[in-house]
Structures are given as C-alpha cells and as structure tokens.
Amino acid sequence: MSLVVKALSKKIQERQILSDIDIVLTPGEIVGLIGRNGVGKTTLFKTIMHQYLPEAGQVIIDERDVDVDPSFYPRVFFLDDQHLYFAQESLQFAVNMAQMVYPEFDAKRFWTLMASNNLGPKQRYNQLSRGLKAYVRIGLAVASGAPYILLDEPFEGLDIIVRQQILALILQEVTDHNRAFLLASHDLDELDGLSDRVYMLKDTHIAGEYDLETLRQHAQKLQLVFQDNVVPEVVNQGHIIAQTGRVFEVVFTNYTETIDANLRAAQPILMEPMSLTLVDLFKLNVEDAK
Fold first, then answer.
1. For the ABC transporter domain, which residue ranges apply (predicted)?
2. Of 190, 210, 230, which residue sits at a domain end?
3. 170: number of Cβ within 10 Å
4. Band of the pLDDT at 44, cuts 50, 70, 90?
C-alpha cells in the first residue's frame, strides 16, 4: 500500500514548474519535501490532488490509478491554505463538508481535539489566531481517516505550544495508526529531527532523496582552519558550505580514508568534526545551483 507519484509534470502559463517527479509515500513514515521559495512545492501538492491537471504522469493510490478510479482520492488529505472552503465559516461547517468528502471522518475525535484548545462548533475559522488555524487544519487531517496526509508549511509562524501539539499529533498518527505524512516545510531544523526521508525539489525536478541517518554513515562535515589560509586541493573533493574568516565548514558526501589522510597531511590548525544537518544539504543544493 502506498501513494506513488510517477513522472508527474506540470506547466503553468507555459512555464515548466514540475518535470518527471517521482515520489513514494508509504504508511508509517514521515517524509519531508524541501526546496527554495517558489520552486513548486505547493504546485506539486495541488497536482497530486488534481487541483491542477498534469501534462504527464500518474498518481497511484494503493495500486489504483486515480485517472481511472478517482474514488481513491479520499485516501489522501490535503487542504489548500490559500483557498480554504471554510475560511469564512464556522468549524461545524468545516466538519460537515469534511464528512461529505472523507467517508471515515471521525467527528467525535475532531471535537475532542478542538476542546483541548477551547474551540467549539460555532467558532468561526477567520476569527482564530494563526496557530489555532493551523491546529484546526491538522485536526481535520487527523480526523479525516485518510492514510496519506499532505501538509504544506505546517509549522510556519506557530508559537511553541501549538507547534508541540501538532508535532505530537503527527507522531501519534504515524506510530499508533500507521499513517503517512508528506511535509513541505521551510523549517529544516524541525524536519531534520522528524523526517524518515527527505526529497529535494530543484529546477522542476526531484534533485535528490536523502535518508539523513544513512547519509551520515558515509558523509562527514568538518570545520577546518589551514596555515596561512592556504586551502589544500583535497578540499575540492568536498563542498565549502560556509566560511568565516579563516574558518571553513566543508561537507564531504563520500568521506574516505584517503581524504582523511590527505587532509591530515596538510597539517590543518583545526580539524573538527561537526554534525551533518538538513540545513547543510539545503546549502549544498543552493551551491550546486550557482
């Protein structure tokens, strides 16, 4: 069982936004989607849901091509935050509509979640704070019963209390109910500790798929300072992601004994291992684009 995106492509006003996108989302995992502003993350979600019709490609939900059998779409939950159907309505209206779309929608659970923030049926969505609006959206996602949940910037602008509530809900749904989440987010630090895998979207394509724990087994990030500020040739086998004065931060995606020996032979003043993060991968992505 899985949500599979195959060779998905989309143009908007003759501009190519997505090209040959391949993504797999399986139950029981949290997957991140990262990329620079305007790269097409939201467009990808809308195209997966056929809010935008793709020029090419397939969306397959639990082995069913939704072009052939669109009845499987309620197995995927996504809300377009910019065009919410209940933006000017009450939370009861949001629930009534969600029950029409998602056959397994659990209204009792939704209201139980809302009660923890003193929200009731008559509360109007547009009167809520930014954080509580986000909590309502995640509440609808959890209550929907859909096994695959797409969230677009779920942590943006949230205070720490609501953020922790949303994180707890996501982790609970994955652990206890074997659901899958695809999170598009600029909060790379949050995704780093949360995601099982991460897709990098760049220049209309998926530029890479990363499992940070696996990558860390082969990669190495070092803080380096060299005598007379002369950088040895071996550093070119890595990627300089930051420089402050004489201090370099370098990532070697395939760190070998030979690289280690050559670096030590250069007699650096400082050679300090550092933790490799998702932010570092994003920086590598940006540097490769230059």
1. 3-228
2. 210
3. 21
4. very high
Q: Is residue 214 scored above 90 in pLDDT?
A: no
What are the pLDDT digits (tens) for 246-268? Answer: 999 999 989 999 999 999 999 99
Dihedral, 174, 159, 275, 30 alpha carbons, nearest 10? 20
Rounded to two decimals, what is the model's pTM?
0.87
Is the domain of 195 the same as that of 254? no
